[in-house]
Amino acid sequence: MAGSLFNLSANRRLVAGLLANLLSSICIVFINKWIYVHYGFPNMTLTLVHFVVTWLGLYVCQKMDMFSPKSLPIRRIVWLALSFCGFVAFTNLSLQNNSIGTYQLAKAMTTPVIILIQTTYYKKTFSTKIKLTLVPITLGVILNSYYDVRFNLLGTVFATLGVLVTSLYQVWVGAKQHELQVNSMQLLYYQAPLSSGFLLCVVPVFEPLTGEGGIFGPWSLPALVTVLVSGVVAFLVNLSIYWIIGNTSAVTYNMFGHFKFCITLVGGYLLFHDPMSLNQALGILCTLVGILSYTHIKLAEQEEGKSRLAQRP
């Protein structure tokens, strides 16, 4: 009886965690898009707000003993912090200058770029099945980009830079966690304030501080509240990701991530009237098939590797 009650409580917590991640991940995309479209809030300043709120949130978590910070030498995470700035800034610029469909599908190109980086510079090998899943992913992105009526040069540049920097960041995150023997939250706890400091130096160069469009400009109360809410949601996205992976498995999180991907695309079509032709829909479907195939094969290979290790005397 006690075991049944424990399982019921655990299931409720799991459902609550999944719902929190679903809502926060979808909300952050639409809130940021709303801020760009309706308020014209500067991109890099919004990123700075996200970093500061994320660090404050992690500081509160640390004080609540949700994780223990580990002292890290700043010089060993400088490039990681810089890439963190770049990946958030460029993906936000991609969202600002592209339709949500193009933004999401461009992000799908992160997987093949990571494979290319790890194969070229880290001498990591991937199976033929994994490499074949890149075909439908790439084909889907090409289909969507070709038929997207909002396709533009500036949006393409930002999307490309976003993919490259995001890929480098994700590769470095794994390498640094192994090298420094820290978990994701411990690493992010140092990244966020360091990245905030870098952006604080750069923002005045690219964005006005006062007047129309400046951080200290005549913003309305609804605009400021929306920006603050965006920062809180950005923190919740990170926190819920770590919670789900820590309490379930990578399979659960990845499959749930694809579900969020589909909902976000449909939401962009319904809320922001992003155009979606039949060819774009086919591109989305093709990309989604490739992502699902990649996830399934990759996780199956990981399980097979664990089984082999377990069978060794």
Which residue ranges are poorly predicted, with pLDDT under 50 across at least 5 consecutive positions?
1-8
When the domains are counted, the total is 1
Order of helices and strands: HHHHHHHHHHHH
Q: Could you tell me the number of beta strands? A: 0
Largest sheet: none
The whole-number mean of residue pLDDT values reads: 76
Structural class: mainly alpha
- Helix fraction, binned, reads over 70%
Tally of helical runs = 12
Termini Cα gap: 38 Å
Radius of gyration: 20 Å
Explain this structure:
With 313 residues, the protein is mainly α. The N terminus is likely disordered. 35% of the residues are buried. The longest helix has 38 residues. The radius of gyration is 20 Å and the shape is globular. It has one domain. Helix 1 runs antiparallel to helix 10, helix 3 runs antiparallel to helix 8 and helix 5 packs across helix 8. It starts with a helix and ends with a helix. It has twelve helices and no strands. It comes from Labrus bergylta (ballan wrasse).
How is the secondary structure organized here?
Layout: H1 2-39, H2 43-63, H3 78-97, H4 100-108, H5 110-121, H6 128-132, H7 134-147, H8 153-180, H9 184-206, H10 221-247, H11 250-271, H12 278-311
Helix pairs in contact: 1-10, 1-11, 2-9, 2-10, 3-8, 3-9, 4-7, 4-8, 5-8, 7-12, 11-12
Q: Keywords, please?
A:
single chain, 313 residues, 12 helices, globular, Sugar_P_trans_dom, transmembrane helix, Solute carrier family 35 member E3
